[in-house]
Design goal:
5-stranded parallel beta sheet; globular; Rossmann fold; 22 helices; binds iron/sulfur cluster; TIM Barrel; 3 domains; alpha/beta; FAD/NAD(P)-binding domain; binds flavin mononucleotide
Length: 660
């Protein structure tokens, strides 16, 4: 094992700009050089029996590099051979000594990068039993979400065995060489199931009032402490506000009682969490303003004396820096920002803020976990492929002169990746600005301006790797003759259009782009022709202005192109704003005062409206044939290939960039 480096941040630009993030904090007897923690992240990268794989190790090693001496927590392990506590098919296990070698490698990988290695115990409770027919909990309270298994009520014997399993798995963590440990009581997992009055209806000593409901937590903490000895810092993640109002649950005051009881039982640091899988209140989607939940950290600081940490939409380092300076937080945790960019805090320290690949809070990573798929990230193509050399950008064998037609996210991603490998890359963009459709997407409501962060990042990376920009210049066959490149990348995106149907001339039609840009004149009653992301953006903008909006689309559901872990937010917002939707439908004809919608079961529904907004896309790649005729190597990427999303644009751009 390499000797742990000593960290001196004093001459680093980030430490001057964000001084509170780069000063030490003490947890029990351990001094951590900064206030940064990579929060535990299931990645589904372990093998089906819970053994750690090279992919999982390399994933963590990158994050350990990123925290520049801070805390790096491995994903929560499950601890029972019956697998009732296992919430994810690829969750790491720790219920037997045979897992020790893998856990030891994990601790060493983290420590090898100079980070503080943190190990997490996570019995998934109501979310558990992923590979069996049930999960367990304190009481038989039916699931609200269909994707989870039926709950089996734990007997006292089950409870005592589970506490013992926590202690045994904790001992394995300390034998593996981890320097810190934590117990996860986050969103709806076993610990929080016991603490919450929503899921704990027991009348024995593990139920009743908040003290009784916390007994399982207290006993677990005490048994884990006995197993790991007096030296190791022990942390817990606990809910400060359940947001379960529609079904009951704890009051925020009761939650603070659980904090005090945890502290009394010997916990050295508390990570503040909020919300619950079964709650209808979103906590981490893009529409939640960054820093919104800091008031819960403040409440926690007032309730306990041990250090308090928190994640949950603290993406901009200025926010936790201020919160720590104001004394309402001690440690800045983050999960998704470091899925998107494993070196995020390192870049903060080095003053390279514009080189941070920003998480867009889309929750694809979560959606994948709950669908038994390995981790992936919307904006980070290498995520979960860290151990695979074929995913890395290597110097090009033959250097080429490449023209990229289109400065949207696909073209920009390709450009800097190819340039980083030694190619000469020229991006031509017909507009006088970069970003393509993301420029419009960023005008959507509810945090969508964060999408443009991706373009800022790509521009910074293009600058770093010497990409040449030609703004306001359209690539044409004549330009290809003039420039005679070796390769042409067609990243020209889409055009917005509509079919011709009878009577179409009777109505003003406007494009979704003009609506989001605020350029279109739109009447009070609007029909949106389309149901994907651009259509949703336009519908929400118009509904927010008080327009009566109806969406007509061919797909079986609105937002077919939106992640399952995010679409519910849009559905909620469209519903709250009274937007009417016709699915599996189309506009069949225009009339004097509206349109005829051909809906399900061949029904014809007249809808009165003043304006129709078209929001469907068609790929633009008319350069392809001309370039091929001239003998130029051609590749088509992003929406120009098939209209899809920011994510596909980035992933196409990256993959083409590392291979050309
Ligand atoms: C309102 C709206 C909301 C959206 N919301 C989301 C969302 O929430 N999440 C999501 O993932 N996606 C969203 N999208 C879709 C997303 O923006 C696109 O999928 C993505 O931008 C495609 O990237 P691209 O680079 O392939 O193409 P584009 O972004 O379309 O970029 C193509 C670029 O090429 C340029 N160009 C075209 N022809 C030429 C030429 N001959 N020479 C030079 N330049 C040329 C264009 O001017 C344009 O700048 C939204 C789109 C819109 C319009
Ligand atoms: C893909 C994914 C996996 C997660 N796995 C765990 C886990 O194993 N244990 C845990 O306590 N929290 C887990 N969380 C919660 C995060 O640690 C974090 O608290 C949450 O994502 C909010 O922080 P953020 O806004 O910085 O992402 C996970 C979150 C995500 C997105
Ligand atoms: S998948 Fe989406 S939410 Fe998850 S880290 Fe990547 S950008 Fe962020």
């Amino acid at each position: 094992m390499a000797h742990k480096p000593t960290w001196d941040y004093s001459d680093k630009p980030g430490a001057k700009r964000f001084p509170h993030l780069f000063k030490p904090v003490k947890i029990r007897n351990l001094t951590i050089p900064n206030r940064i923690k990579y929060a535990a992240t299931e990645d589904n990268l372990n093998d089906p029996s819970g053994f750690i794989t090279p992919a999982g190790l390399e994933y963590m090693r990158e994050r350990a590099k990123g925290v520049v001496g801070g805390i790096c927590c491995m994903q929560g392990v499950y601890m029972d051979p019956k697998r009732e506590g296992q919430g994810y098919v690829g969750q790491a296990a720790a219920w037997d000594d045979r897992y020790l070698p893998g856990l030891t490698k994990m601790a060493e990988a983290i420590k090898g990068e100079g980070a503080v290695s943190d190990y997490q115990l996570m019995h998934c409770g109501r979310v558990g039993g992923v590979d069996i027919d049930h999960c367990v909990g304190p009481s038989l309270v039916p699931q609200r979400l269909k994707i989870f298994r039926p709950v089996k009520e734990m007997t006292r014997e089950d409870i005592r065995r589970t506490i013992k399993e926590h202690a045994e798995a904790a001992k394995r963590g300390s034998q593996a060489g981890f320097e810190m440990m934590e117990i996860s009581g986050i969103v709806g997992y076993l610990l929080s199931n016991f603490i919450s009055s929503y899921t704990n209806r027991r009348t024995d000593e593990y139920g009743g009032d908040i003290e009784g409901r916390c007994r399982f937590m207290v006993d677990t903490i005490e048994n884990v402490r006995d197993a790991i000895g007096k030296e190791m810092p022990l942390m817990i993640r606990l809910c400060a506000e359940e947001l379960l109002d529609e079904v009951g649950g704890n009051t925020p005051e009761e939650s603070m009682v659980s904090y005090k009881l945890a502290e009394k039982a010997g916990i050295d640091c508390i990570s503040v969490t909020q919300g619950w899988q079964e709650s209808g209140t979103p906590v981490i989607t893009r529409d939640i303003p960054q820093g919104k939940w800091l008031y819960n950290a403040k409440r926690a600081k007032e309730a306990v004396k041990v250090p308090v940490s928190m994640a949950y939409r603290l993406f901009d380092p200025a926010i936790p820096n201020k919160a720590i300076g104001d004394g309402i937080l001690d440690i800045w945790e983050m999960c998704r920002p470091m899925i998107a960019d494993p070196h995020m805090p390192k870049k903060v320290l080095e003053g390279k803020l514009d080189e941070i690949r920003p998480c867009v809070a889309c929750n694809l990573c979560l959606a994948r976990l709950f669908r038994d798929a390995p981790m992936t990230c919307y904006v980070n193509p290498i995520c979960a492929h860290e151990s695979d050399p074929s995913w890395q950008a290597k110097p090009a064998e033959t250097k080429k002169r490449i023209i990229v037609a289109g400065g949207g996210p696909a073209g920009l991603e390709f450009a800097y990746v190819a340039a980083s490998r030694g190619h000469e890359v020229h991006v031509f963009e017909q507009e006088d600005r970069l970003g393509g459709q993301i420029w419009y997407a960023g005008k959507g409501l509810y945090g969508d301006e964060e999408l443009m962060g991706m373009i800022t990042y790509q521009q910074a990376m293009c600058k770093r790797h010497g990409v040449d920009f030609h703004l306001g210049q359209k690539v044409t066959p004549a330009l290809l003759d003039e420039e005679s490149p070796d390769s042409l990348i067609i990243a020209t995106g889409v055009k917005y259009g509509h079919p011709t149907v009878p009577g179409i001339e009777k109505h003003p039609l406007v494009s979704a782009l003009d609506v989001v840009e605020g350029k279109a004149t739109v009447g009070d009653r609007v029909v949106i022709w389309g149901g994907k992301k651009p259509a949703i953006s336009a519908a929400l903008i118009l509904a927010e202005k008080g327009k009566k909006v109806t969406m007509v689309f061919k797909e079986r559901k609105v937002g077919k192109d939106v992640n399952p872990s995010y679409i519910w937010r849009y559905i909620q917002k469209l519903g709250n704003k009274g937007v009417k939707t016709y699915k599996e439908a189309d506009i069949e004809a225009f009339t004097d005062d509206g349109v005829i919608v051909k809906a399900l079961y061949e029904t014809r529904i007249p809808v009165k409206c003043d304006t129709v907004v078209y929001a469907e896309r068609e790929p633009v790649r008319d350069l392809e044939a001309a370039a091929k005729e001239k003998g130029i190597e051609v590749q088509v990427i992003g929406d120009a290939l098939v209209p899809r999303s920011l994510s596909n644009a980035i992933h196409d751009g990256y993959r083409t960039g590392i291979r050309i």
